[in-house]
Design brief:
about 0% helix
Length: about 170
């Protein structure tokens, strides 16, 4: 099999009426308001490279911005991020990894908090025992990164390094 490449890109610009946004009334209370007008702009780029029948790589980048009619940053925007995923598939063994870099978020809405950048690495190894059964070892957050799920000021931390041993049986 020869090298195969695939490139995808999406560029978007939305002008929205009646955008519902979460905001802070006081230290204990969150509420929602209707923003009459809002704009969300972004770009997503993805590159898939398969150098052989056994190996596949996916590279992606996302960037998003959003503002209300007074040029205030919208809440709940996706963080800018780079990602590299690889998969090695042999007869009975699959090895995969995902390495993501989330950029620092410092232009956030009033109900959010700035977030530091984060490097997140996940890996898995799976072995097909027979037609019906497989076993997998999965390690998430291999770098043991301490990062939040979102910029929401009430967001929880994502799980630190964790390991899962999984078996599947199909009958």
């Amino acid at each position: 099999m020869a090298d195969t490449w695939q490139f995808d890109t999406s560029i978007y610009h939305y002008t929205l009426d009646d955008y519902i946004e979460r905001y802070r009334l006081n230290e204990q209370t969150l509420s929602y308001r209707n923003l009459a007008k809002a704009k969300i702009k972004g770009i997503e780029v993805a590159l898939r490279w398969q150098p052989s029948a056994l190996i596949e790589h996916h590279f992606s980048y996302q960037h998003q911005t959003g503002e209300d009619r007074d040029n205030n940053t919208l809440a709940d925007l996706h963080p800018n991020a780079l990602k590299w995923q690889s998969l090695l598939s042999m007869k009975q063994i699959n090895i995969s990894h995902s390495l993501s870099y989330r950029f620092k978020q410092d232009d956030v809405a009033s109900s959010e908090q700035a977030r530091d950048s984060a490097l997140i690495w996940d890996m898995s190894l799976s072995y097909q025992l027979n037609q019906q059964q497989s076993i997998s070892l999965i390690v998430n957050n291999l770098t043991n990164e301490h990062y939040y799920a979102s910029a929401d000021d009430k967001a929880s931390f994502e799980p630190k390094r964790n390991v899962t041993l999984k078996t599947e049986y199909i009958f």
